[in-house]
Amino acid sequence: MDGTDLQNEHQAANSAEAPASGGSDGAYRVLARKYRPSSFDDLYGQEPMVQTLQNAFETGRIAHAWMLTGVRGVGKTTTARILARGLNYEIPGEIDKATIHLDKLGVHCKAIMEGRHVDVIEMDAASHTGIDDIREITEAARYRPASARYKVYIIDEVHMLSKSAFNGLLKTLEEPPEHVKFIFATTEIRKVPVTVLSRCQRFDLRRIESSTLVSLLRAISGKEGIEISDEALALIARAGEGSARDCLSLLDQAIAHGAGRIEADEVRQMLGLADRSRVIDLFEHVMRGDIASALDELKAQYEVGADPAVVLSDLADFTHLVTRLKAVPKSGDEASVTESERLRGREFAEKLSMRILSRTWQILLKGINEVQTAPKPLAAADMVLVRLCYASDLPDPEEALKLLKSGKFSPAGGGAPAGNAPQGGGGSRASAVSGGGGSVPQLRTVAGGQPMVQAVGTPAQSAPQMRRAEEAQEKIAIRSWHEVAQLAAKMKDIPVKVSVERALRLVNFQPGRIEVQPTEIATSDAAGELGRKLTEWTGRRWIVAVSREQGRPTLHEEKEANQRQLVSDAHSDPEIVKLIAAFPGAKVVDVRILKQEEDIPLEIASDVTDLDPAESMDFTEDF
């Protein structure tokens, strides 16, 4: 077969795919198959991998095995076939070597891309998981290919192989014959043994960016003669979540649904989505604390077919967008963000504080799960919106306690101060308090069992003091096990600090000699490493010996016990009891020590993130 015959065959193949039927038998071919990439130039969003392969092919440094990993629909199997085509690319009289430049149809190309070439063997590991299947591969690998340059084995979903099958593949995979190449594809890379990964070149196929997907969908719609709005393209690209195959399947469905002309409303109806502008209106009602308008808007969207769980998911997506616009304003320039989302999102980003957005996100995240499992999704979604509206109207717990102290807040009234629009602020004072240094307050129990707040401790060292301490390491004196942990933290040696706090129990402490009992998480050389580090840091010899005697609880266990005691003490504090009574359903979940103001004996912060209990005192309302 000469070059003219090959070109004619290529043109015939292309002409067969041009009609919507996509085949000579009149059977319809879905867009995901009809526009499946056939060369490296057709791969979208995988430029780093293509560049690496191009350099390898041009320099002759071709590996014997590749591992392709990524989420569904990013092109793992397609890339494997294109790679097999490049390895066996051949045009008589023109090209007879492996290349990534596949401009013309080669001798083996059509059969490889259709998955029917005798020397390119594709195996689905999900249905061929045993050692017998791998034994067939290892036996057949000894024989040279029938017609192609390389015998290529493509194993899809390779993580499904059994342990014995992986072990049976190792020897052949490490030292395969020169004429054999392996290409593996998986969506669960962590399930692949490291012994297999170490024998392969790994390529992580990335999720395709929304802007790239929009361009792809627009190009394919043009080829199909379909009119589709930009907003509809953005909706499909967002729903595809970085998967080209998912996007093309949705476009296929939208074409059938829209009958030639596709608008955003039709795509929303097809996907069960609410109108994006109406979702933004709902967000505005919630942020104003307008419960009646929020419930009416949700009901109206439900009556036109929107799923309550999807509405809350869209609400969470918009909350995320506003948060990103507040943190990174240029993120609104992405192609997947519509004009209304960009303009109104920036308005909300200027008005709402990060604390309010974070609280909204947490309530929505919990509420979506409730709606998905509730017997009546609409009622559950209503309750989530009510919770959001009341949360937007509540003062910060810190501010609530100040009002309670000053007598301006009445627990019996059960309400918040006037003003229902969360405009800015939203807990800046709490952030300032939690970020302060200085003395460390503690809850102490006095006669009668009532806790009180007392500030104890020493101020943090300044930077010059730290430098002077580091310059005089040989003069450092350690007098307790706690000071060992503090020294490790000061030296920024995290492994040693974690070992001292969590992996070693103190048995006996003397200057120059420490006896410890390792816990089950301790490394075999934890004691020896600690001794070497102490000797290095203090300038004197330290011996850390392992003892068989029972040691005291670890510093971490002591810290957790103290924290439980602080929470228990907080429940008996009369002021905290009043605050909990003011917010039905609230409970104390954590106690954190704060720097105190002279006129305020107890501060409350509303941050629910995991912080060091030694840094702040936090009584969080459980919404």
Work out the number of β strands. Answer: 12
Q: Quick one: CATH superfamily of the domain at 36-204?
A: P-loop containing nucleotide triphosphate hydrolases
Helix content: 40-55%
Q: What structural class do the secondary elements suggest?
A: alpha/beta
Radius of gyration, whole Å: 33 Å
User: Roughly what fraction of the amino acids lie in strands?
Assistant: 5-15%
CATH class of the domain at 36-204: Alpha Beta
Shape: flat
N- and C-termini, Cα separation: 73 Å
CATH topology of the domain at 36-204: Rossmann fold
Biggest beta sheet attributes: 5 strands, parallel
- Strand order in space, largest sheet: 2-3-4-1-5
Q: Which residue ranges are poorly predicted, with pLDDT under 50 across at least 5 consecutive positions?
A: 1-24, 412-474, 596-623
Report the mean per-residue pLDDT as an integer: 77
Label the CATH architecture of the domain at 36-204. 3-Layer(aba) Sandwich
Total helices: the number is 26
Notes on the structure:
The protein is of the alpha/beta class and 623 residues long. Among the domains are: 36-204, P-loop containing nucleotide triphosphate hydrolases (Rossmann fold, 3-Layer(aba) Sandwich); 210-271, Helicase, Ruva Protein, domain 3 (Orthogonal Bundle), CATH 1.10.8; 276-393, Zinc Finger, Delta Prime, domain 3 (Up-down Bundle); 463-498 and 505-550, GMP Synthetase, Chain A, domain 3, CATH 3.30.300. Helix content is 49%, strand content 10%. It has helices at 3-17, 31-34, 47-59, 76-87, 109-113, 131-140, 163-174, 194-197, 210-224, 230-240, 244-258, 264-271, 276-288, 291-303, 308-327, 339-351, 354-373, 377-393, 397-406, 428-434, 463-471, 481-490, 494-503, 526-538, 555-571, 574-582, and strands at residues 65-69, 120-124, 151-156, 180-186, 201-204, 227-228, 261-262, 440-445, 451-456, 504-510, 513-518, 543-546. Strand 11 (513-518), helix 24 and strand 12 (543-546) form a beta-alpha-beta unit. Helix 13 packs antiparallel against helix 14. The termini are far apart.
